[in-house]
């Protein structure tokens, strides 16, 4: 049973009628809920809708629930090489790196993203010394988005921090790359909870429906554009041009002459 509204379904139907083909794309939806994996997650409920839009666009969708895993503290790709007995990140990272689209979903706690969301961002940063086959940072040519849920203000604040971090490590952020839902301040129903009349909390929010749809389609469009173009041109953004002492647009240090 779909959780999308009639308007969301209509938009997806119209997109399919345009013969848009995103079948070459892979997406990974990452849930940074703090709940035990055996418990339902409200963040997962909104990610489900994003996943449904992706799947209707023929995107291959992978799901990661971070509370299923142990992410050892630290900013190296494998922290077992730095004193920890266990780090599940190496296996997770293969799935993240393989995807063209990465969407991080997080609840809001004390006005901020969850601790697991922050740990995920730190793990992305652990790959900042690695490059793709063009010599660019590893996440160049991939796109990122953010889903936020909670019972307190802060969707835009959390989205700002998440999306800044993702672009800093190389992800491309398209327009309107965040969406979310927040209820009344304080304890109370969360997104997807069943009401007395059988409807679901938040499912009637046009703001959430619209922004979720915009985000999902913009991520697919941007990822497809990058895929078709072969990624971002490797001009002026190649790590080795700096590592060997040369700077784009400037002479090598050893050849500089004093005025």
TrEMBL record:
Domain NADPH-dependent FMN reductase-like: 26-158
Span list, region Disordered: 240-259
A GO term, aspect molecular function: oxidoreductase activity
Pfam families reported in the protein's UniProt record: FMN_red
Alphabetized InterPro entries for the sequence: Flavoprotein-like_sf, FMN_Rdtase-like_dom
Name of the protein: Flavodoxin family protein
Organism expressing this protein natively: Sphingomicrobium sediminis
